[in-house]
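Model it.
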Amino acid sequence: MQNPSDPADVDLHPVTVDGGGDRRASVAVPQQGSRSGLLSAVAAYCLWGALPLYFIALAPAGAFEVVAWRILFSLVFCAVLILATRSWRRLFGILRQRRIVLTMGLAGALIYVNWQTYVYGALNGQVVEASLGYFINPIVTVFLGVFFLRERLRPAQWAAVVVSVIAVLVLAIGHGSVPWIALILAFSFGLYGYIKKLVGGSVDAVSGLTLETVWLMPVAVAQLIAVGVTGGLTIGTVGVGHALLLVGAGVITAVPLLLFAAAARRLPLTWMGFIQYFAPIIQFVVGVAVLHEAMPPERWLGFGLVWLALAILTVDMLVASTRGRRAAGAERRRSTRV
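Modeled.
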């Protein structure tokens, strides 16, 4: 799943950074465009949350075939959008910047790992574990900030990281194996977000997805050839409805991304931070209530610890946001007196 987000499109104006990664985000209610932004964000994350059901409906296609068609039809959909919106000049301008093009290639490799792992989990009865990956993604992002950006964490953030590590250990011991799907999803998307931040606001959502899928096109073609030789492609052999669903994989990939981009420009990051949990919550409900995946006590305990870590992180974010607003207000009052 491509979650979760196209960080290059996030409006960073509501956020200030106060030394050592102490991020203070404004949580003031947005005025203009808030309703449309909220609807776009909720729609994007609900679509991402329901993706397991879509991929399961693609059976008997396997994960490699599904991801290959997802890449190719996403590229076709993006090409149509670029032509319809006449934004090819912007894309050609990006293509002249070698560093950005190479960076998008790395982003494409990371999102490929994310997509392939997610679809594999959805098609192999591991939707609950996939949801775990997106539950712990915010905590992994905090960890990556320390590792790559040398950010200093507040005590509550460290507590959330420690609790999440304990949760993974509990899940690993209880299940008898490390939850690799969850960890790969969390770290691949966390690194994807970090790489996309390197290009800042230079790449919009459609151009970014276009470049990533262009890089991945040879991989997709190779996968389709391999599947065709070894087991046979399912597209066109199961029925018209199945073929249309495979073609629609490109649309279902691009539309939530565009909705997210629209929401990110209209809502404060704090709002987006809360709404991002819609996707893993829906995935978890789908896995437990719809697909009836097993939830033994040790798994509930592990998820409970993850949710505790997220609660700590959320409360800390709200406290930091409140302090940030107060500090900003005090600064405005001082500047007014001067």
